[in-house]
Design brief:
With 243 residues, the protein is of the alpha/beta class. Helix content is 39%, strand content 30%. It has an 8-stranded parallel beta barrel, surrounded by 7 helices. The radius of gyration is 16 Å and the shape is globular. The termini are close together.
């Protein structure tokens, strides 16, 4: 059974979504992300993916107080990413209630720091963020592309003990055009032991079903919920029937 992980993206403490990571496309869906988190919990979801878009742009954690409020108001297992660049950032994230943190740019630019965090906090608390465009790793809020290819990048860290990988196809993110199932299948074929979280492009229930049928371990989705393309009720009912 694929794990269903709703997402909340934060700018100025509000619940927003972007298209292809472009801040100029920002759309506010709710000014109270805590209420959104509670709504997810009330429909039976156990997990929440939170992205600090201010943090990603500023290169340091920004919305940790919002994280703290969501963690205090719910029992959701929260994974938090965006702007985690330093020892202080990751300490603040865990101290504010994150159960896991997603780290991408630092893994690409400062591998020794990422490896140190992996050892210090443990593989069950660190998610390797792999944001890709044309299978090349993008960094710093998707504003910069690196020359690192996805598969070698993942292999390097999986060999070091990484278990959780959040892979986002930037070309699909916020587009409601369907997920990159072929890309995720490729990752799973290379690394069957990986706890892969697919991200980007989910537009309807059939996309969720297709990812489930492709044996993808988990999926993050957001815009399809906020735009009314998928209802929380039908997601919860489908998940219940799959138990």
């Amino acid at each position: 059974m694929i794990e269903l992980i709703p997402a909340i993206d934060l700018i100025d403490g509000k619940c927003v979504r972007l298209t292809k990571g472009d801040y100029a496309t920002q759309k506010v869906y709710n000014e109270d992300p805590v209420a959104v988190a509670r709504e997810f919990e009330s429909h039976g979801f156990k997990r929440l993916h939170v992205v600090d878009l201010d943090g990603a742009r500023s290169k340091h954690i920004v919305n940790h107080k919002v994280l703290e409020r969501m963690a205090s108001a719910t029992t959701l297992t929260i994974d938090f990413g965006g702007g985690i660049k330093s020892d202080e950032d990751i300490r603040i994230a865990f101290g504010s209630g994150a159960s896991l943190v997603t780290v991408g740019s630092i893994a690409a630019t400062h591998p020794e720091r990422f490896t140190e965090w992996l050892i210090r906090y443990g593989a069950d608390h660190i998610i390797l963020g792999a944001d890709v465009r044309n299978e090349l790793i993008s960094i710093n809020g998707w504003k910069e592309e690196s020359s690192q290819e996805l598969i070698p990048f993942l292999r390097h860290y999986i060999e070091k003990g990484v278990r959780h990988v959040l892979c986002t196809d930037i070309s699909k993110d916020g587009m409601l055009s369907g997920p990159s199932i072929s890309l995720y299948r490729k990752v799973m074929e290379k690394f069957p032991e990986c706890r892969l979280i697919a991200s980007g492009g989910v537009s309807c229930m059939q996309d969720i079903i297709s990812l489930h049928e492709a044996d993808i371990p988990a999926v993050v989705f957001g815009k399809a919920i906020y735009e009314g393309k998928i209802s929380l009720e039908e997601l919860a009912e489908w998940a219940e029937n799959k138990k």
